[in-house]
Amino acid sequence: MADDGMAINQPADGVLGRVSDLLFRRPGLLLAILLGPPLIWIGVVYVGSLVALLVQSFYSIDEFSGRIVREFTLKTYAELLRPSNLDIVLRTVLMAASVTLASALIAFPIAFYAARFARGWIKGLFFIAVMLPLWSSYLVRVYAWKLILANEGVLNWSVERVGLTPLVDALLSMPVIGGPSLSFSYIGTFLVFVYLWLPFMILPIQAALERVPGSMLEASDDLGARPGQTFRKVIFPLALPGIVAGSIFTFSLTLGDYIAPQIVGSSRLFIGQAVYMHQGTAGNLPMAAAFSMVPIVVMAIYLWIAKKMGAFNAL
Amino acid sequence: MPTTVRKPMYDTEKDEVSPDPAEQVSAVELSGVSRHFGTVKAVDQVNLDIPEGEFFGMLGPSGSGKTTCLRLIAGFEQPTAGHLKIFGDMVDGLPPYRRAVNTVFQDYALFPHMNVIDNVAYALTVRGVGRHQRHRQAMEMLELVRLGGFAKRQPAQLSGGQRQRVALARALIGKPKVLLLDEPLGALDLKLREQMQVELKSLQRELGITFVFVTHDQGEALSMSDRVAVFNQGQVVQVGTPEDIYERPEHRFVADFVGSSNILEPELCQRIGAPEGVWSLRPEKIHLADQSVSREDGVVTVSATISHVQYQGSVRRCVLSVAGHSLSLSVPSAVGGLATGQSVYARWNLDDMHRMVP
Question: Rounded to whole angstroms, what are the CA distances from A277 to A54, A56, A272, A314, B287?
Answer without folding.
Answer: 18, 16, 9, 42, 100
